[in-house]
Amino acid sequence: MIRSLAAALTVFATTAMAQVAPDDVTSFTLDNGMEVVVIEDHRAPVVVHMVWYRAGSADEPVGQSGVAHFLEHLLFKGTETLEPGEFSATVAKNGGTDNAFTSYDYTAYFQRIAADRLPLMMQMESDRMVNLQLDQDDIATERNVILEERNQRTESSPGALAREQFNAALYQNHRYGVPIIGWKHEMEELDLEDAVSFYDLYYSPNNAILIVAGDVFPDEVRALAEQYYGPIPAEPDLPERIRSSEPPQLAPRRIVFTDERVSEPYLVRSYLAPERDSGAQEKAAALTLLADLLGGSSFTSELGRALQFDSQIAVYAGAGYRGSSLDDTSFSLSVVPAQGVTLSEAEAAMDQVIADFMAKDIDPAALDRIKSEIRASEIYAMDSTQGRAQRYGAALTQGLTVDDVHAWPEILQDVTAEDIKAAAAEVFNLNQSVTGWVVANEEQAQ
Fold first, then answer.
1. If 341 and its partner were Cys, which of 20, 38, 337, 386 is the partner (CB 3.0–4.6 Å)?
2. CATH for 21-228?
3. Angle at CA 340, nearest 5°, toward 334 and 346?
4. The Peptidase M16 C-terminal domain covers which part of the protein (predicted)?
């Protein structure tokens, strides 16, 4: 008889993992350098078609922040064969949905549609890879759109504005310190030449990854990819992906962000942390488990138990690690103090929890429980065709390989308590941190 949830999850996940092999994933490269990943899922006659470009906000020229996201919007304008807006209208007319998104390391475009419409999707997506047509009216219209998007998502949110300031302080030299959507004053100056030059350089097959997931077969996808994407020539001047790195950080940084719209004061501390690297994902795996142990659950994590229940100093305490990243990333702790508790008291209590965690042994039962939950979540994630496609797309644009994606679940399971402690000791360096207080007024900043 299974007597615990952790044991139940272990049995379920182990069985499920044995039934899910990477045999349903095929990858190859076209002659022009375009990588292709095919994920077979024949449960429904549906396909997800995605094109990922290794060009995100961190690849933008200095002074042109926001151009990657700006270009994402502009790609829904016309081409030599499609009128503005016709791309999405055609997808909808055929019963599908489409969209796009931009991050630090990539820009991606996708459609979810009936499998027999895949050739049409490839025809249209390959068309806008090379035949985008823009004019000054397009620039003016979409520049206003992205500025309004910034107003809605950032300017109207004190939390978002605070995150921008904290991030800019954490990354003193790297482009991760620049917001993905861009700084407002630079967005206002983006012009046709900025968009076209970014498009001409980065929107090329040798800088792109095609992901097709769903009711398809690899040979079918290969033939279609060669037909539609294969004739597009590679970009001969595609630059090597080298970004400015962080200098040695020699002092902790502190920021008090004040905005009268803040409803409850809170604190966030972010540390520079290593990312997942191809063939060397072990440290990232240890940090992934560290985040769960410290702040993954209000009921069972170290911060949650100590601050929310034992001392009732906080109404919320958490930890997070953004391991998916091409370059150095961040590990963060956050606390929302309870009524009557100052930010200084909450921060001191948070630091004490971290010190206690580093001084004692990790509870083997807690580590086993988290590993079981992670393994189960990996299995549940296999149910989402689009989620699987996005996992491979993000990984490949951030320096990982298909084999790295396949290896990740077992690497997580192999992490030891000693690995976690070693990773924590490396990351918890105040000289490589920013501590931010978010308050409504000066009286709360104490």
1. 337
2. 3.30.830.10
3. 30
4. 190-372
